[in-house]
Specification:
The chain is α+β, with helices and mostly antiparallel strands. It contains nine helices and five strands, in the order αβαβαβαααααβαβ. The protein is 44% helix and 12% strand. Strand 1, helix 2 and strand 2 form a beta-alpha-beta unit.
């Protein structure tokens, strides 16, 4: 992706399509960061909606893109630096980047607290302690804690593995032996048991 962006010229037109999820907002910030280094910036348009993009949504919002200014690109650059460095606040007018400020704020909540855990790790533990006893049950219930989609299943398995490695939960496979979810077969993920310590 980086190489393609660096090939853009001032006469080009770029339309960026993103949704509100944290993953998309980080990619948006990265793209704006890279575009900020171009000697001649192309026309940059953003179509960012709180939807799950499909053919119908693309048709519905095809004319909703807004032109981004140099200030918007610079703000996206600052946002990427914040994401990459783990710094918290980025000041600026996020009106034209409607979900980026919330993504930055949510990202900051992943910084470990005094217990050494970030927000998602604490929420995973809460799910296990309140009865979610399989990886799929934990993952499925995580949406209740988030305003926008935040985490994929593989990230969830890795975080659960980390909690097990720290001794905060126990993960056992169908054979009763300890299990690492990040290496487990898909079928085993359905039957693995999570227990609070």
């Amino acid at each position: 992706m980086d190489e393609r962006l660096f090939c853009l010229r001032g006469t080009d037109r770029v339309v960026l399509w993103f949704d509100a999820c944290m993953f998309d907002q980080t990619i948006l910030a990265r793209i704006l960061y890279l575009l900020s280094f171009l000697p001649e910036r192309p026309q940059i348009f953003l179509n960012c909606q709180n939807v799950c993009w499909d053919a119908e949504e693309f048709r519905k919002y095809q004319h909703a893109a807004i032109a981004l200014s140099d200030a918007d690109v610079e703000l996206g650059k600052k946002a990427w630096i914040s994401f990459a460095s783990g710094r918290k606040a980025v000041e600026g007018d996020f009106t034209r980047l409607p979900f980026l400020r919330e993504a930055l704020e949510r990202f900051a909540e992943e910084m470990p607290d005094a217990s050494g855990l970030g927000r998602t790790q604490r929420e995973l533990l809460l799910r296990v302690r309140t009865g979610a006893n399989t990886p799929f049950a934990v993952f499925k219930g995580m949406d209740a804690y988030e305003k926008y989609p935040f985490m994929g299943d593989a990230q969830c398995w890795n975080l659960l593995d980390d909690l097990a490695a720290r001794g905060l939960i126990t993960i056992t496979g169908s054979d009763g032996k300890p299990l690492r979810l990040s290496r487990a077969a898909a079928e085993e993920l359905k039957t693995a048991v999570l227990l609070p310590k």
